[in-house]
Amino acid sequence: MKKHLSILLLCATPLLANAQAAFDALQMSQNELRGTSRFQSMAGAFGALGGDISVLNQNPAGIGVYRSSDISATIDLNFQSSKVDGMSNADTQTKFTFNNVGYVGALKLNSDVMPNLNVGFSYTRTKSFHRHYRGADNNIPSSVTNYIAALTNSGNWSEDDLAFGYDGHPQGANYDPYYDSNAPWLSILSYDSYLLNPGTNGFEGITQNGTTGYGEFEVDESGHTDEYSINLGGNIKNTVYWGLGVGIVDLKYDSYMYYGEALNNAYYYHPDFDASGNMLYTGRYTSGEADFGFVNHLATKGTGYNFKFGVIFKPVNEFRIGLAFHTPTYFEMKDLYKTISSFEMRDSYGTFNGEREAGSEGYWDEYRYNLHTPWRFIGSIAGVIGQKGILSLDYEWQGANTMRLCDNKNREFIEMTDDIKNYFQPTHTIRVGGEYRVDNHWSLRAGYSYTTSPVKDDVKNGVLSVTTTGSNTAYQYDRSNQYITCGFGYRYKAFSVDMAYIHQYRQSNYHAFPAVTYEIGGLDAGNFAEVNDHNNRVSLTLGFRF
Question: Sign of the C-alpha dihedral, residues 395, 401, 403, 409?
């Protein structure tokens, strides 16, 4: 077994060196409850109501409801808390955001058929990626090295494919597997870090009968998705309201993911060293302690566009029906990424350690591709109760399984499409909101929203094994997402002040690596943890109508 102990800078092969691909696409495609304070305090159940700046991002037909011009701005104070099940402490963050600003201009046409033609512009932060959590397991059921061995064996890669060139190597002494081999980077990186052992039936992880271990992980995410909307809408005889919208979307996402293990009674290859500490091309298999870890950095930027179409039908003043369709957001994306592996082995022959790095010059490699987010459909009903109350209900369908990943010439990655179809399912969101007008100035509001998981049960239950596509073995997804909201509003002549309180309870799964589909060394389960977010947000909107 021939290896190098120097730090390595690698050149990328498209998408193979990238992160988890399908689950990254899912992460970039999800939105949050954001907008004006009135919109948020009613949990976003505005699809059949309109008359609010936030409908420009939801049902553009809502712009047709306006009879006068409107301008508003919203700020948020966010208190975030993420806790891994079994850990004693939660990781917390406090963020201040400028959440929304918008303008609607109402043009009166003096027509009985179409009384108004309105135009609107808005900026909305539709998602914040900020989250930090970490966890540990004192008795891990499996090792990531078993998964990497299974991945390597599935491609029938040999030691000659993964090893650097030396005298007698089939590809010659100058062979560099990072440049010259088609083997996965993760396999090469792990082999070069002494985390894969060639066996009689292929590669094996460094576990054996009697191996015990400790695992730890950390995830630190930041970034946002911002949407700039341009809308046009009107109404027909104050009965049918229509709207068209174009969204320009800006995305920025940064993540740091670490996973490491400390194994006792691990089985690995110990190289020999000369008196000067230089590695010799001799050695032996031995058992001892092994500490190792992988750090993955990902920085993603994207710009895209989408289209929205909507209609609201008001047969009587007390009842309204809304429908809206959103096309995918067609993103042009750019990823910068870097992967570091480090290891330290200790046994009766001594200690050796090292570090490997994946990236290009400057330690980062770049990849460009296109992402098409899911289609969305929103159906809504709302009722007006006398002169005092409003009750509204929204249903939203979002096809997570309709996402697509393409190269920068828009040629679809067929294998990624298959993964998306196999792993994901449509999500269903129910939003309920109500408003009660206390008097001519004050209003009280409340709402609730629930979104199902975009991941199929076979993935969540471990029946279907996930395949990661690069040197990052970790992936994460939501099991459910809920919002409980309330707020109030004050109106005085043309001025308005609205406040909202939003509580988000999100349940997620973090997997350090996928489960292997057959036993290796007696271990076949991937390591995962449950993550619970309890996020609180206070929102303030100032508005003026004229």
Answer: negative
In angstroms, rounded to a whole number, what is the distance separating the alpha carbons of residues 204 and 142? 13
| Among 324, 344, 339, residue whose Cα is nearest residue 261 | 344
Let me know if 467 is exposed, middle or buried by CB neighbors in 10 A (0-12, 13-18, 19+): middle
The amino acid that residue 15 corresponds to is L
Q: Residues 9-61: pLDDT tens digits?
A: 333 333 333 435 789 899 899 999 999 999 999 999 999 999 999 999 999 99
Domain membership of residue 450 (yes or no) is yes
- E strand or H helix at 203, and its extent? strand 202-204
Nearest-angstrom CA–CA distance, 426 and 429: 10
Counted domains in the chain: 1
CA 204 to chain centre: 32
DSSP letter string over 425-473? --EEEEEEEEEEE-SSSEEEEEEEEEEE-SB-HHHHTTSS-----SS--
Which amino acid, one-letter code, is at 167?
Answer: D
Distance (Å) of CA 295 to CA 5, 231, 259, 292: 18, 43, 7, 10
Q: Give pLDDT, residue 527.
A: 67
> Which pLDDT band holds residue 171 (cuts at 50, 70, 90)?
confident
Position 181, amino acid = S
Any domain includes 51: no
Q: Which domain holds residue 482?
A: 22-32+130-222+246-545
SS3 18: coil
Separation of alpha carbons 499 and 76, rounded Å: 10
Taking the CA atoms of 378, 28, 256 and 194 in sequence, report the sign of the dihedral they define.
positive
pLDDT of residue 62: 95
SS3 string, 257-321, reads EEEEEEEEEEEEEEEEECCCCCEEEEEEEEEEEEEEEEEEEEEEEEEEEEEEEEEEEEEECCEEE
Per-residue pLDDT tens over the stretch 415-461: 888 889 999 999 999 999 999 999 999 999 999 999 999 999 988 88
Q: Is residue 391 part of a domain?
A: yes
Domain contains 541:
yes
**468-477: pLDDT as tens digits:** 766 788 899 9
**Do residues 320 and 392 lie in contact, with contact meaning Cβ atoms separated by under 8 Å?**
no
Q: Which helix (H) or strand (E) holds 485?
A: strand 475-492
Residues 6+ apart with CB under 8 A from 276: none
How far is 423 from 412, CA to CA, in rounded Å? 18
Beta bridge partners of 240: 236, 313
**Nearest CA to 138 among 264, 49, 269?**
264
Q: State yes or no: pLDDT of 152 exceeds 80.
A: yes
In sequence order, what are the residues at sequence separation of 6 or more whose Cβ sits closer than 8 angstroms to the Cβ of residue 375? 325, 326, 327, 328, 398, 399, 402
pTM higher than 0.90: no
